[in-house]
């Protein structure tokens, strides 16, 4: 498949200032995504959409193309990722008069997607004729045991769900998964048609990734935990060397 790999990275971050340029084992979060993309067997073109000159410079150091600066209105806290994708696609079609089979969206805040994960996502898309493949991680607590507290602090909604289980299936609750933010592979023509990722529920698939490689960096403690995983060998840095 002919695939555009697009790293998306805003300069602003309230929880971790300069988050996308923060380094783990000497590699920036942008760098992790860039290296994995470049090592993929299916990377036709690698570029970044960012509003930050510093991020642009960092991306270039990893061999990423910087064809434009993201408009300010697409770099706010409320800007939608689908609009960022649309902007990049429009730019490419207008300037390069070229389209791709699919676009691989890569967010540095989930840095540890490996090249093998990217390749497996593409192979899954080809095998299933999927319109969307997203990275997924297993959850440790089933949704039947999760719910809101009411205004008085009661756990009524959780108890109601638990009571729906029989004794037998309580011991065999089905494993559940959630999106890990590590990768989103979207068919080009499908996204152009809907300008949305989740319009085709029957042709959308999840690629299960190991829990440790699904880590998302949202808070300062996540950086500390990522360092711990690297130090103890749970994250194999040979994937980025």
Describe this structure in words.
There is one protein chain. It is globular and about 60 Å long. The chain is built from eight helices and eight strands, in the order E-E-E-H-E-H-H-E-H-E-H-H-E-H-E-H. It has 241 residues and is α/β, with parallel strands linked by helices. 33% of the residues lie in helices and 18% in strands. The chain folds into two domains: 3-138 and 177-240, Spore Coat Polysaccharide Biosynthesis Protein SpsA, Chain A (Alpha-Beta Complex); 140-175, no CATH class. Strand 2 and strand 3 form a beta hairpin. The mean pLDDT is 95. The chain has a six-stranded mixed beta sheet. Strands 2-3 form a two-stranded antiparallel ribbon.
Short overview:
The chain has 241 residues and is of the alpha/beta class. Helices cover 33% and strands 18% of the residues. It has a six-stranded mixed beta sheet with strand order 4-1-5-7-6-8. The protein has a two-stranded antiparallel ribbon with strand order 2-3.
What key phrases describe this protein's structure?
241 residues; alpha/beta; 2 domains; 33% helix
Produce the secondary structure layout:
Elements: E1 3-8, E2 23-24, E3 27-28, H1 29-39, E4 45-49, H2 53-61, H3 81-95, E5 102-106, H4 115-128, E6 132-138, H5 156-163, H6 167-170, E7 177-187, H7 188-194, E8 204-208, H8 220-231
Parallel strand pairs: 1-4, 1-5, 6-8
Antiparallel strand pairs: 2-3, 5-7, 6-7
């Amino acid at each position: 498949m002919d695939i555009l790999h697009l790293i998306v990275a805003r300069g602003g971050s309230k929880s971790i200032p300069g988050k996308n340029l923060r380094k783990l084992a000497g590699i920036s979060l942008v760098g992790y995504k860039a290296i994995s993309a470049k090592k993929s067997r299916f990377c036709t073109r690698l570029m970044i959409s960012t509003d930050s000159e510093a991020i642009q410079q960092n991306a270039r150091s990893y061999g990423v193309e910087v064809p434009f600066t993201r408009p300010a209105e697409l770099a706010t806290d409320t800007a939608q990722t689908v609009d960022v994708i649309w902007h990049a696609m429009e730019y490419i079609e207008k300037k390069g008069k070229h389209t791709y089979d699919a676009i691989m969206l890569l967010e540095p805040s989930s840095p540890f997607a490996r090249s093998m994960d990217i390749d497996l996502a593409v192979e899954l898309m080809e095998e299933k004729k999927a319109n969307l493949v997203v990275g997924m991680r297993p959850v440790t607590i089933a949704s039947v045991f999760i719910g809101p507290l009411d205004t008085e602090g009661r756990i009524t909604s959780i108890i109601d769900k638990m009571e729906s289980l029989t004794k037998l299936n309580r011991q065999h609750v089905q494993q559940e998964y959630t999106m890990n933010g590590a990768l989103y592979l979207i068919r080009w023509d499908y996204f152009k048609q809907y300008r949305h990722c989740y319009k085709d529920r029957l042709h959308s698939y999840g690629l299960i990734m190991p829990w440790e490689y699904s880590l998302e960096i949202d808070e300062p403690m996540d950086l500390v935990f990522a360092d711990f995983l690297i130090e103890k060998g749970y994250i194999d840095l040979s994937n980025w060397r």
